[in-house]
Amino acid sequence: MANEGPNWEGLLKWSIAHSDGTRPSQNFSEEDQRWFMEAMQAQTVDVGKRMKEIILVMETPEQVLEAHGITSADIEDMLDELQEHVESIDMANNLHSIGGLIPLLGCLKNTHANIRAKAADILTTIVQNNLRSQQLVMEANGLEPLLSNFTSDPDVIVRTKALGAISSLIRDNKPGIAAFRLANGYGVLRDALSSENVRFQRKVLNLIHYLLQENRSDCNVATELGFPSLMMHLACSEDAEVREAALRGLLELARDRPCGRNSLSEDEEQLKQILQDRIEGIGLMLSEDLAAAREERQLVDALWNMCYKEPSSLRENGLLFPEEDAPPPDVAGKLFEPPLRAWDAKRATDTDT
């Protein structure tokens, strides 16, 4: 019977027979109690033990796993399970102490793209709002394989997942940001902007925006690397979220004013034409589309005002209303702040204090 799994049908019949709602509950016999506890324990998972079993699989060479009939789909299922376990900050931090972090980083080099992507996904979960795990991943040289996958993996999903892990790894992590910059991080971000995948473009732009907000001096680096022209190109994208992300980046560069000039000074004529085109496009929108494009309208107006010291024609044409004068929301910042992990991190901090 033990090999066949819990007898749930028998448990249901027993429950109905012993609790029909019309008579007082009866005392369990010792045999009934023993059977019930065995049934419940069969469904209880020892998370620590299970994580070690998954780690053992991650440590085993691919050819050995294949020889034993373990497929890449089986490994993906195990990694899905591992990701559920490390949603807990305690379990995320415990992964390294039980020997799981290095094998997980090794999965970033797996021959199967889905496994490489899933490994990056798990790393994202581990380091989100978790300074301790950020430190552990940095100490294990985890940034290097993530950068490698981000820059050169042939699968765009793997590249996107690696970028997500990098973003979470360096967020609110000054040593991580410094290491990213030293590893030519801005250079690889510039190259990544040439991708045609809009989801990838959005994530790259959001990370650039975050980095420029964190360190104003990086605006000079971004300008020297040609970011303004790349962002202007993406500000004309057919994808609304890409346009907004590009406009946010341009606005950050426009706020940088060394020696009375901003980082967009050399491209002002091109930028002016792009903004005029966007204003015309906004003017042709239906009312429901205007509501959805609120942030884009705010960004266009703010950028025009920043560069040309006057309100845009969106205002005089009635396309931007007084109640919409608040600064554009920090969408990029929110993308780095998963609510459940953020709450868990706050709970852990409160417990420590």
Notes on the protein architecture:
- The protein is mainly α.
- It has a domain of 122 residues: Leucine-rich Repeat Variant.
- Helix content is 69%, strand content 0%.
- The chain is built from 23 helices and no strands.
- It starts with 7 loop residues before the first helix and ends with a helix.
Produce a short descriptive summary.
The chain is mainly α and 353 residues long.
- Largest beta-sheet details: none
Elements, N to C (H/E): HHHHHHHHHHHHHHHHHHHHHHH
CATH class placement of one domain: Mainly Alpha
Helix vs. strand class:
mainly alpha
- Terminal CA distance: 49 Å
Write down the CATH topology of one domain: Leucine-rich Repeat Variant
CATH architecture of one domain, by name, is Alpha Horseshoe
Radius of gyration: 27 Å
Q: Assign an overall shape.
A: elongated
What is the subunit arrangement here?
single chain
SS elements, strand count: 0
GO molecular function: adenyl-nucleotide exchange factor activity
GO cellular component, one term: endoplasmic reticulum
InterPro entries: ARM-like (IPR011989), ARM-type_fold (IPR016024), Hsp70_NEF-Inhibitors (IPR050693), Nucleotide_exch_fac_Fes1 (IPR013918), TOG (IPR034085)
Protein name: Hsp70 nucleotide exchange factor like
Secondary structure layout plus pairing:
Elements: H1 8-18, H2 30-41, H3 47-59, H4 62-67, H5 72-85, H6 89-97, H7 101-106, H8 113-127, H9 131-139, H10 143-152, H11 156-170, H12 174-182, H13 185-192, H14 198-214, H15 218-224, H16 227-234, H17 240-255, H18 268-283, H19 287-292, H20 294-308, H21 313-316, H22 331-335, H23 339-352
Helix pairs in contact: 3-5, 5-8, 8-11, 10-11, 11-14, 14-17, 16-17, 17-20, 18-20
